[in-house]
Amino acid sequence: MAARQNIAETVVPAAVVELGEDVSGLRHLMVIKADAEAYKATDAAGVRVIGVNEEEGSEGDEIAVRPGYFWIPNSASNPVTAAHIGTVCYVETSVIVQSAVGSHSVVAGTVENVDATAGVLVHVGVGAAKALTS
Question: Are residues 103 and 84 in the same domain?
Fold first, then answer.
């Protein structure tokens, strides 16, 4: 199952960001808010996904957040399908992506592949979905 790992890990450098909330667990989609701090992604106004967390931390800690390609679990209620490859997918929760636009249309990234077991391969981070959403 090695092919399903984070394929960007050695290619894309991580950014070090200050947390605006406690974060436990790894591989949450992370957003930047107006206060320039990182938070777990939600369908909230005025945020943009910058990557996936590689570390846990408490509010005020600095942690590594990496943009790149990640397998992210698919939504049960609004699943991403092969028909969405090349388009954007949206944040359902900090660990699930969906095909439907939420209340605030928070883009998780660009859909690269879909697999029933692995989930959705998403190109996550600043600039990943820029061309498709501008």
Answer: yes
Range of the domain at 125: 69-133
* Closest alpha carbon to 64 in 78, 50, 77: 50
What confidence tens digit (pLDDT) does each residue in 94-122 have?
999 999 988 889 999 999 999 999 999 99
Of the residues 66, 91, 120, the one at which a domain ends = 66
Averaged pLDDT of the chain: 87
Give the list of residues 6+ apart from residue 50 with CB closer than 8 angstroms, or none: 15, 17, 30, 31, 32, 38, 65, 67, 125, 126
73 and 49 in a single domain? The answer is: no
Structurally, the chain folds into a number of domains equal to 2
Question: Are both 73 and 111 inside the same structural domain?
Answer: yes
Cα separation, 43 vs 103, in Å, equals 7
